[in-house]
């Protein structure tokens, strides 16, 4: 921009110098023309004076037509001088031009007087009044018109010479001034070029150092380093690209660290899950061992009873039929108990293998609950407990396996009476929902802990219920039956009292499972 301004300044000086040179050249031409024309005026005027002397001396007018033409040329020359002076006055309104005009007017007056006297002398000679003509010419000589005219011509010439000298001095001054300006402009441009070179070298060097330092920082892993904004577009674009690259690398590194931490957390979680699984497997194995021991005990007891009763019967020599019937009835009861235990084991095994079959039909579950309520209300009274049925529905039909649903409800009611103390109040509730029927059996027994809620339906688990009578298969059997009905069963502690609540959710209709 500065170079452009300097170039424009030099161009302006060149144009102004050219204009001044042209102006001085025109003024010089005008001065030269004026000098030539003043010389012509002096020559023609002198010729007029000589011609008047010849007319007075000879008394004759020679070649009057030629003399008239010279008078016309003289006037035309004066007119040309005036035009040139007026032109100079329009171009340059200077006081010297006014002085030249004054000198021109005086010369013009003298010329007109010479011409007028010349005409009067010619008329007097033509009228043979030679003596008057001589007197008029003598008067003209006495007034020193020729001397005054020559002085005026000399004055005008000197003025034009002075004007020419001023033009020469102006041209010389313009020449020296232009040389100084040109040299100064060249010096300024040279200094500016050196400064520009140093300035851009310094900016490029600083930007290059910043970029080099940034790359070293990035290489060292310091991706939070950022390059300061650059002034130059190229370095600004490069710095922005490097900063974006650093941001992307930092983001990728952050994502990698997140993935690494996530992987470590997953490994820790998998390790924890594996350890927990191992603990659970150990617990399951321990429960299996305990279960086998309990089953062995449960089977040993009825088998021992059967064997003992059979041996007693064999050793007995009684012929009483009633005695034999009593022993056989005891044996049959123990066989039934053993058969029920084995059936529970087979049911849980089939459910785990997905082979549990149901005999579905529509039945009135309200009627089933009423029947079970009547049965277990008597048992509750025997244990000095109360059982309440809270149902607002009299006829409620669902599609399910009635025998298996009865088995589940009996398991839950048995547990409620077994684990509740005397004077406890147990309750059966039934609720109708949009897609499910909810049956709740609420007891006031020993309750369960939060940890037991996750294990209470597992096989072989008995928890704090291990002191109670039973094989520990009741709840697993109930869960297997409810799961086969696409339902849901939970056992949770009561919020505001002791004991627990068993909740069964059964769908209204059974949905056939389509194998793909």
UniProtKB/TrEMBL annotation:
Keywords: Kinase, Membrane, Phosphoprotein, Transferase, Transmembrane, Transmembrane helix, Two-component regulatory system. Its EC number is 2.7.13.3. The chain crosses the membrane at residues 181-201. One of its GO terms (cellular component) is plasma membrane. It is found in: Membrane. Residues 294-510 form the Histidine kinase domain. It catalyses: ATP + protein L-histidine = ADP + protein N-phospho-L-histidine. GO terms for biological process: cellular response to phosphate starvation. The keyword Transferase applies. Residues 202-254 form the HAMP domain. SMART domains: HAMP (SM00304), HATPase_c (SM00387), HisKA (SM00388). The keyword Transferase applies. Signal peptide: none annotated. One of its GO terms (molecular function) is phosphorelay sensor kinase activity. It comes from the Bacteria. InterPro entries: BphY/WalK/GraS-like, HAMP_dom, HATPase_C_sf, HATPase_dom, His_kinase_dom, HisK_dim/P_dom, HisK_dim/P_sf, Sig_transdc_His_kin-like_C. This is histidine kinase. It comes from Pseudoalteromonas denitrificans DSM 6059. The lineage of its organism: Bacteria, Pseudomonadati, Pseudomonadota, Gammaproteobacteria, Alteromonadales.
